[in-house]
Amino acid sequence: MGQQYESLWSDIHRSSFTQAYVDAAGIRTRYIQAGPDTAPTVIFLHGTGGHAEAFLRNLDAHAAHFNVLLVDYLGHGWTDKPAIDYEIPDYVKHLADFMDAVGVKSASLCGESMGGWIAAAFAIAHPARVDRLILNTMGGSTMNATVSQTVIDKTMAAVEDPAAHVRARLEWLMADPKVVTDDLVACRQRIYAQPGMRETMRKILCLQEPEPRLRNLMTEDNMSKISAPTLVVWTTKDPTASVEVGERIASWVPGAQFTVMADCGHWPQYEDPDTYNRLSVEFLLGRAVQEAA
Q1: Which of 1, 216, 217, 258 is most buried when burial is the number of CB atoms within 10 A of its CB?
Q2: Domain count of the chain?
Q3: Residue 171 domain flag
Q4: Tell me: the pLDDT tens digits for 100-139?
Q5: pLDDT in tens, 244-268
Q6: 289 belongs to a structural domain
Q7: In a domain, 211, yes or no
Q8: CB neighbours of 1 closer than 8 A, spacing ≥ 6?
């Protein structure tokens, strides 16, 4: 078999897309858009320390049906990094401000890891603005000190020395570390090398500390208030939480569907995009979701 060549940008060769910036209540916010702007909107939200490129393998499949927005949310990617607390209400406000800035009254939200945490909190705070909700290996429902310390250690090492440690941070997310391409590593290294990124990341990681995490924690009490149709996606090899955690989250949301993707880690949308895209598009179109396997 010949040499395989992979690039982030070859993942979106079928779609016309735009990278743009918008002023979201004073926060210069970067996003990638694809699909007809007259179609229903789907917003993808990445995880802690992440950026919009986490969803490039999902853009084409979703842009065939939706107005797709991949967002660098507050403090992340190429979006502004103000000196604030970086707790969940801050992210919820930024998402509402972003939607206002791009003229989106309501959208379906697909959140991975901390993006799922933000999406769930947004659905509780702004139920009329959420059409459908996908919680993909969602964070914020457990108090696991070992996992939190691993996130802190690996993320701060990557920010303090991107050349040496970004690859290890990305590989930790995956069931198969070989899926981490040089292109993805270089993309995150450039983002992490921005001036002020180290100081901002320390603030972002407050949600891995016991007291801030506890006051922002998602529980049965608050997640039972979610009214949007919800799909919870989990994996068999998530390094942050077991399948049982995903099942519990799904049981908290009235009427939620639950599915498990095999042989994936914390980024199933990237490791197995064909399966993820099928599940996601089925759900977002209101069709019956088939099993992941």
Answers
A1: 258
A2: 1
A3: yes
A4: 999 999 999 999 999 999 999 999 999 999 999 999 999 9
A5: 999 999 999 999 999 999 999 999 9
A6: no
A7: yes
A8: none
